[in-house]
Amino acid sequence: MNAAYVIVGASLAGAKAAETLREEGFGGPIVLIGEETERPYERPPLSKDYLLGKAEREAIYVHPAGWYAEHGVELRLGTTVTGVNPAAHEVMLGDGGRIGYAKLLLATGSAPRRLPVPGADADGVHYLRRVADSDRIKEAFAVASRVAVIGAGWIGLETTAAARAAGVEVTFLETAELPLLRVLGREVAEVFAGLHREHGVDLRFGLQVAEITGSGGQAGGVRLADGSHIPAEAVIVGVGIMPNSQLAETAGLEVGNGIVTDAQLRSSDPDIYAAGDVANAYHPVLGRHIRVEHWANALNQPQAAARAMLGQDIAYDLVPYFYTDQYDLGMEYAGYVEPGRYDRVVFRGDVQRREFVAFWLGGGRVLAGMNVNVWDVNDTIQAIVRSGRTVDTGRLADPGVPLEEFLAD
Ligand SMILES: Cc1cc2nc3c(=O)[nH]c(=O)nc-3n(C[C@H](O)[C@H](O)[C@H](O)COP(=O)(O)OP(=O)(O)OC[C@H]3O[C@@H](n4cnc5c(N)ncnc54)[C@H](O)[C@@H]3O)c2cc1C
User: Fewest CB within 10 A of the end CB: N or C in the chain?
Assistant: First the structure.
């Protein structure tokens, strides 16, 4: 096959890129290759409604089953790309096959970081990335009376909320002093700690996991570095993810915290692009490279990459955005703050009742904002972040002052 547009990684980013290529009128061959056997699906429900049993399997897919054939997209599932030869414009497949490309998009995403302790490969130790992982965790919650969750990031917190909804006792283990401390800072991290404490979670911070205990290859608990032992019938590990950038690296592309691209999502090879979790893209508004591990980025960035692959003059400059749902707390976050690099947090609304907006400020400007159980404000928050204007913090904290006022001339 010749001169195809080839996409490696058949998940949200890959599927959206294929869709955009067709929407933009590209009539040539498109080959979408994924090592998973499922057609492209979205991962956020795997730790929320799908895990909770509130969403059907069919609801997670990016497109209906027939969409790929109807749009002339050759979907090759269960197929691993083992190498890229930029000089020959070819990708190599695990089955020995090769596919030539005119343009290549790497949308290979990321994979869970493994816990480097003895016993971490026992049965009953779960990582959550794929739909089969979510199925296994749901089964574990149905039979377990107590689980341990290691790592207080978004996956750990959402899985904890799902376990509590299933009536399972949770001991929550984290090295830092608070959940999400690096991402949110102390002020807002306290809100999430309080939320889980109120739901009966045994939160333990400032500790080191030494070993997963058990017998006969089955996990039975977690031993901490201080010698104490937490019994658990299942252990969920959520200690971060690593970008799947090995293909790019062995192909000789520039790699550093993911595949390094310009604002058009073009890698150091002019015919190879990257998008989604794996892309460390130059962001024109932030004035730096950034790799975003969130759904909205995997939804929107490949659309820009597809247009750039078709020769359109486009730069991806959307403000980073993510969301979470835990118990009765729903929130959206927009912007970007490097860990610890803000001057103060301004709250607007009722933090105790968890109905508020938090703004992270630096140099008098809003770097990021998070609306918690307050809706229809995130577009305005994004516009405020983009504007880079200095704000009056007293007025920002006052819910009586419309947010639009911070955008008015
Ligand atoms: C459980 C869970 C919950 C989440 N919840 C939220 C949320 O609430 N809010 C939010 O903003 N974000 C959330 N995210 C993050 C969001 O889902 C990711 O940012 C998004 O999935 C990234 O999409 P992607 O297409 O870039 O990569 P991925 O989804 O990682 O997909 C990459 C695909 O490429 C395949 N692949 C990799 N290498 C190869 C190869 N060599 N050959 C063939 N195929 C290959 C992989 O198998 C995979 O299918 C969540 C993630 C998870 C796992």
Answer: C
9 lines ligand 1 (CB under 6 A): yes
Cα separations (Å) of 153 from 4, 102, 137, 206, 235? 39, 39, 17, 14, 15
pTM over 0.85? The answer is yes
Ligand 1 centroid from CA 244, angstroms: 10
| Ligand 1 atom at minimum distance from 133 CA | 1
pLDDT tens digit sequence for 45-92: 999 999 999 999 999 999 999 999 999 999 999 999 999 999 999 999
Query: Measuring from atom 50 of ligand 1, which residue has the nearest CA?
Result: 44
User: In 3D, which of 98, 239, 256 has the Cα closest to residue 159?
Assistant: 239
**Encoded tokens for 314:** 């486009």
Helix (H), strand (E) at residue 307:
helix 295-309
User: Best of 157, 158, 239, 277 to mutate for ligand 1, by most ligand atoms within 8 A of CB?
Assistant: 277
Interval 116-144: pLDDT, tens: 999 999 999 999 999 999 999 999 999 99
Residues composing the chain? 409
323 lines ligand 1 (CB under 6 A): yes
What gap in Å lies between CA 201 and CA 156, rounded to an integer?
12
Tell me, what DSSP letter sits at residue 227? S
| 293-303: pLDDT as tens digits | 999 999 999 99
Residues with Cβ within 8 Å of residue 34, at least 6 apart in sequence: 8, 9, 10, 11, 14, 40, 75, 76, 77, 78, 79
Structure-block tokens of residue 378: 């995130």
Distance 14 CA to ligand 1 centre (A): 10
Query: b vs e for 57-69, b when ≥16 Cβ sit within 10 Å of the residue's Cβ?
Result: eeebbbbeeebbe
- Report which ligand 1 atom has the smallest distance to the Cα of 43: 17
Residue 128 CA: nearest ligand 1 atom is 1
Q: Is the CB of 406 under 6 A from ligand 1?
A: no
Does ligand 1 come within 6 angstroms of the Cβ of 35?
yes
Which residue's CA is the closest to the ligand 1 atom numbered 53? Answer: 129
Q: Determine which helix (DSSP H) or strand (DSSP E) holds 67, and give its type and residue range.
A: helix 67-70
Interatomic CA distance for residues 93 and 91, integer angstroms: 7
If residue 215 lies in a helix (H) or strand (E), which one and from where to where? Answer: strand 209-215
Give the C-alpha separation, 125 to 335, whole Å.
34
Determine if ligand 1 sits within 6 Å of the CB of residue 236: no
